[in-house]
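Hi V.,

You were right to ask for the full record rather than a summary. Here it is.
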Amino acid sequence: MRKYIFLLALIGIFLSLRLINLSKFPLYIDEGIYINWAKQFFYDKNLAYIGLQDGKTPLFMWLTAYFYPFFKNFLLSARVISVVAASVTIFSWIIIFRSNKLPKAAVVFWLISLTCPFGFLIERMGFVDSLLTAFSSLSLMTAFLAFQRLKQDKSWFKIILLAVFNGVILGLGYMTKTTIIIVIIAEILVYLFWAIELWGLGKKKQVLKIAFYGLLSFLFYRELVSYLRVGGAKSYF
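Predicted structure:
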């Protein structure tokens, strides 16, 4: 219980420092573009995919529009989403470090993230990149936890849950920014080379679990990505 309280305290400190004076610094041009798309979507749901005209997938703009009623300010809505996404990134990597029994490294990572000037600027602006990094980090965390369970030959149930979660996260990541493809390719290559090694060692049951994990993740990822082929998002809310 103590470690969870400590983790929540780290995330709380990070959020409290990042949320200070969030709307006090000037609007950057890219923020203006994303906020304009979010505003158009908020008032006309038929414009849900307006960003695709510029090659931008729409999830960040959808979230900005969704949370606008809470803040009554599109800029503040976008920036709060970025800060919360940054805290999710911190959470993901702390879990990865602690799973590797490296609690001191987790604290060092938190301190670097907290004090890095570049992060302090970028993670407080309404860019899609902070949300993309959050989904990428969550996916890597999930893949790492799945790797541990597959390596230990754990039950199918947890593997199924992790596969579904990873597929959903990757799908949401793609709907945020298509460059998450880099993460997808990296995960595929890691599991492919590991499966080849296990097959050579005669551990076919583990290879089957890896294939099942990858297929299930892909199915859920593909289902979410298919939303980019529809013409409106009235059902999104």
